[in-house]
Design a protein that fits this description.
The complex is a heterodimer of chains A (369) and B (390). With 369 residues, chain A is an alpha/beta fold. Chain A is 26% helix and 28% strand. Chain A has nine helices and 17 strands. The relative contact order of chain A is 0.13. In chain B, helix 1 runs antiparallel to helix 10, helix 3 packs parallel to helix 10 and helix 12 crosses helix 15. Chain B has two domains: 243 residues, Aspartate Aminotransferase, domain 2 (3-Layer(aba) Sandwich), CATH 3.40.640; 123 residues, Aspartate Aminotransferase, domain 1 (Alpha-Beta Complex). The chains are: A alpha/beta (369), B alpha/beta (390).
């Protein structure tokens, strides 16, 4: 099988179909493959007895069984403490500040492509492989490129936009070259369980996926009622805790008004929900912080590219201006209705992901505060 | 680099001795009768079972009728502790059980179950930093209502050997039934029940180069255990279930070989163990030996390192072909510190940084040297990368 036998690859396994197929492909390609599963922190049990969605004994035994079938070693890495202290606390803190964080971005930044990757390299591995739909390529200058997965509908490069050259140089995404239906066919061919599992790992640590209940239990103080206000200061009603709302939300506000109202933002300092009419909603600008440039170099001047402001959003044309302090300013060609602080603003040049940052609070809300 | 495979986990299980395997084979498909049957096929199997019982009785220095065959150590422990406890209740005796924090769960959880759901009282004795039980503490814990005591002969995690004869002698004076879990001790220490003075004793074949799934319980004549498993009248009504003829033959033969060759094996074990302990303590910074420095099993070495996640260490060792274990080893990545190590006074962090290496008949000096090289390298790697931090 060539020289791949001398290349050790640790594959992050979840028991799901994508990472299982990733592992099987690597074995087929003759690599020295080692399976590893992270035991992440999740709520012990949810009221009513529902089980955790993440790292259940079932998922672990699925992953172990698949590793055994593939004839590769399998280890479970205890990642609970670091996950709880970085991801779960961050999630609660961000909500406290009135922003809606994207834990998957932070998990890839701090856990998967840091803690797990360091563990893999310490085991003499050359690469960490995952079941993400994305691709790694090398440019003419030798730099590593992060590219969208071949299946545009499944592309997960958004949550990988935190990766730099070092991480990419030790990363493999074997299923990124395939479309999801083909991955299912591969699973069948490899004799792997093809049971459909949730694709999104969003909020894997929340037992029932209900983050409002989670915040109610873990940070009840931030779920207290407060005023619903227009930017003019006019009070229209009472909200039931700011984390219950998202930017652009129209339904469920419980406010009577002459025209439809939308959530414009949250003023967490005053525990106030700010609403407005459709023409007040939306902005064509944002700033983002903690910006990562995949190339490792901050562009020296403003440039045009496409930007995604949510995992499932369409990339939209914009002008990107790099700022100091790892920040950037983005001006879209068209106004965007649902720019949400805490989500990633991820930049694309065609199918190449150039990097991204975390969206800061929008100007409108800050102005009022 | 060529892959090596070095097995240093003989406390978990041992390979079946080829001589034992050969002795067992005819009882699978030649003399396959049910020992309880009244025909020739059955008689052949029955003879093998009773020959096995005699062989074991010789080593235990007891009557053959005092040996009950079971499915292994856990069943033997359950039958002894629960059986004796229910018998005490049946006769209106006291309902107090004395045990230690070192016990295997088969004893510890059985005693706890009796306390939780059946109204028994349970005392867990203190142990010192080396894992020794003090006879005075035992004496102090035993009261009027104490009817059963169960104390492990030698511990699986730390290798410490208890003064069983002294403890059992005290129990005898007080009229307390004394059980010992000798699963780890069997094949290495004397199993003479008269010298030990115990009333009940558990062993399991796969710990001394016999097959898995078969064990025995010594029960002194006159003790009337309430069976854990009810059914047919096998084993004089003390343990229902068709006898596992090949397993029983294997158990007896493995035990006989272990004691026929005891001196030779023990010497080898000790040389290997001491080489291992010596070089680990020299080569790995801040390594400490856990358990008693002298009163420990000849095969057993156990260590505490400085902030080294045991599971991570085991993973590194496994990748280099070295099979080891830790008190907290856990397949789910949700490690809980070993209760044994906590009872010895180790901190939670220390208890999560433990490693057990147990040598066997086939262990060579070369194996030990390689294992220690890899261990020292792995510990350094984990420490350097700051991966041991929890």
């Amino acid at each position: 099988m060539g020289n791949n036998a001398d290349i050790r690859v640790v594959v992050a396994m979840s028991g799901g179909v994508d990472s299982s197929v990733a592992a099987a492909l690597l074995v087929e390609q003759g690599y020295d493959v080692v399976g590893m599963m992270m035991r992440l922190w999740s709520e012990p049990t949810v009221a009513g007895g529902a089980h955790n969605r993440c790292c259940t004994p079932d998922q672990m035994s699925d992953a172990r069984r698949i590793a055994n079938k593939l004839g590769i070693p399998f280890y479970v890495l205890d990642t609970q403490d670091v996950f709880r202290s970085t991801i779960v606390s961050f999630f609660i803190e961000q909500h406290r500040e009135g922003v809606t964080p994207n834990p998957c971005l932070e998990c890839n930044r701090h856990i998967r492509f840091d803690y797990l990757q360091r563990n893999a390299l310490a085991l003499d591995a050359d690469y960490l492989a995952t079941g993400h739909y994305a691709r790694v390529a090398q440019g003419d200058d030798g730099r590593f490129l992060l590219k969208k997965g071949l299946d545009d509908a499944k592309d997960q490069s958004y949550v990988l936009s935190v990766m730099g050259q070092e991480q990419l140089s030790h990363a493999l995404f074997p299923v990124g070259e395939y479309a999801k239906p083909d991955v299912r066919l591969l699973a069948e061919r490899f004799g792997l369980p093809t049971a459909s599992k949730k694709d999104s790992q969003d909020l894997c640590f929340i037992g029932d996926g209900n983050y409002r209940r989670f915040l109610n239990e873990h940070a009840p103080e931030m779920m207290s009622a407060g005023p619903i206000m227009r930017r003019s200061g006019e009070i229209l009603g009472t909200h039931e805790g700011l984390p219950n709302y998202t930017i652009g939300q129209r339904k469920g506000l419980g406010v009577q008004y002459s025209e439809p109202l939308f959530v414009l933002g949250m003023d967490s300092a005053r525990n106030t929900l700010i609403v407005g009419t459709a023409d007040e909603l939306g902005s064509s600008e944002l700033t983002a912080k903690r910006v990562n440039w995949v190339s490792g170099e901050t562009p020296s001047e403003a440039f045009r590219a496409e930007v995604k402001i949510r995992y499932k959003a369409k990339p939209m044309p914009a002008l990107i201006e790099p700022l100091d302090d790892d920040r950037m300013h983005i001006t879209f060609d068209m106004p965007m209705r649902d720019i949400s602080a805490g989500q990633g603003a991820v930049i694309y040049d065609g199918d190449v992901c150039l990097g991204g940052g975390v969206i800061e609070r929008t100007r409108e809300v800050v102005a009022l505060a | 680099m060529s892959k090596r495979a070095i097995y240093l986990d003989h406390s978990a299980t041992t390979p079946t001795d080829p001589r034992v395997l050969e002795a067992m084979l005819p009882y699978f498909n030649e003399s396959y009768g049910n020992p309880s049957s009244a025909h020739g096929f059955g008689r052949k199997a029955d003879r093998a079972v009773e020959d096995a019982r005699e062989m074991i009785a010789k080593i235990f220095n007891c009557k053959p009728s005092e040996v009950i065959f079971t499915s292994g150590g856990s069943e033997s422990d359950n039958l002894a502790v629960r059986g004796a406890a229910w018998d005490a209740r049946r006769h209106g005796k006291g309902l107090h059980i004395v045990t230690t924090p070192l016990e295997h769960d088969a004893v510890g959880k059985t005693a706890k179950q009796l306390a939780d759901v059946a109204g028994f009282e349970m005392t867990v004795l203190p142990v010192d930093h080396d894992g020794l039980v003090d006879v005075e503490d035992f004496a102090a814990a035993c009261g009027e209502s104490t009817t059963v005591a169960s104390i492990m002969y030698a511990n699986n995690e730390i290798g410490t050997i208890q003064p069983i004869a002294q403890l059992a002698a005290h129990a005898k004076e007080r009229g307390i039934l004394f059980h010992t879990d000798a699963v780890q001790a069997a094949g290495q220490l004397t199993l003479d029940v008269q010298a030990l003075g115990v009333d009940m004793m558990s062993v399991s074949a796969h710990k001394f180069y016999g097959p898995k799934g078969v064990g025995a319980l010594y029960v002194r004549e006159g003790i009337d255990l309430v069976p854990s498993q009810s059914g047919g009248s096998h084993e004089n009504g003390r343990r229902a279930g068709t006898l596992n003829t090949p397993g029983i033959v294997g158990l007896a033969y493995a035990l006989k070989l272990a004691y026929d060759e005891l001196e030779q094996h023990t010497q080898h074990y000790q040389v290997m163990r001491d080489r291992l302990i010596g070089s680990v303590l020299t080569r790995v910074p801040d390594a400490r030996l856990s358990g008693h420095p002298e009163r420990r099993l000849p095969t057993h070495a156990s260590f505490i390192f400085n902030d080294i996640n045991s599971d991570m260490l085991l993973m590194h060792l496994d990748m280099k072909g070295i099979a080891a274990s830790s008190g907290s080893a856990c397949k789910t990545g949700n490690p809980e510190p070993s209760n044994v190590l906590l009872a010895l006074g180790y901190s939670r962090e220390d208890a999560l940084s433990s490693l057990r290496l147990t040598v066997g008949r086939s262990t060579t000096a070369n194996d030990i040297d390689y294992a220690v090289d890899v261990l020292a390298e792995s510990v350094e790697k984990i420490q350097q990368l700051g991966l041991g931090v929890r």
